[in-house]
Amino acid sequence: MQLQSPSGNIYSEEQAITLLVSLVATDPNSEKKWRGFYNSLTSIQLEEEWDQHWQSFERGHSMPPEGR
């Protein structure tokens, strides 16, 4: 599965999870928790999470840095 950002960048499922974790994790323990959560999702659920994150940034937040 591949996911696309609004800027057109294409991410593999693993890359998408890494990017999502970098946006929400605040410390190493939090990173483990979020990585476990995202890895437990089905492809459809991960795509929904992905879309929700981008939509929240498009609604008034600056766009998150891509490619960390």
Tally the helices: what do you get?
A: 3
Strand content: 5-15%
Shape: globular
Overall pLDDT metric: 87
The value of Rg in angstroms is: 11 Å
Q: What can be said about the biggest beta sheet?
A: 2 strands, antiparallel
The stretches of 5 or more residues where confidence is low (pLDDT under 50) are none
User: How many angstroms separate the termini?
Assistant: 20 Å
SSE pattern, N- to C-terminal: EEHHH
Number of strands: 2
Helix content: 55-70%
Structural class category: mainly alpha
Strand order of the largest sheet: 1-2
Fold and architecture overview:
The protein has helices at residues 13-24, 28-40, 43-58; strands spanning 2-4, 10-12. The mean pLDDT is 87. By secondary structure, it is mainly α. Strand 1 (2-4) and strand 2 (10-12) form a beta hairpin. It is built from three helices and two strands. It is globular, with a radius of gyration of 11 Å. Strands 1-2 form a two-stranded antiparallel ribbon.
SSE blueprint and pairings:
Blueprint: E1 2-4, E2 10-12, H1 13-24, H2 28-40, H3 43-58
Antiparallel strand pairs: 1-2
Helix pairs in contact: 1-2, 1-3
List keywords for this structure.
single chain, 68 residues, mainly alpha, two-stranded antiparallel sheet
What would you say about this model in short?
By secondary structure, the chain is mainly alpha-helical. Helices cover 60% and strands 9% of the residues.
